Amino acid sequence: MDTIRTITRRRTTCRDFTDEILTKERITGLINDAVWVPSGSNNQPWRFAVITDKAKMKAYSDASKKGWLENLATTPFIQQYEKAIRDPKYNIFYNSPALVIIYGNSESYWHVYDCSMVAHNLHLLAEEDGLGCCWIGFAHNIFAESAVKKELGIPEEYQLVAPLILGHPAKKKAISENPNKRKPFEINFV
Question: What is the pTM of this model?
Answer without folding.
Answer: 0.90
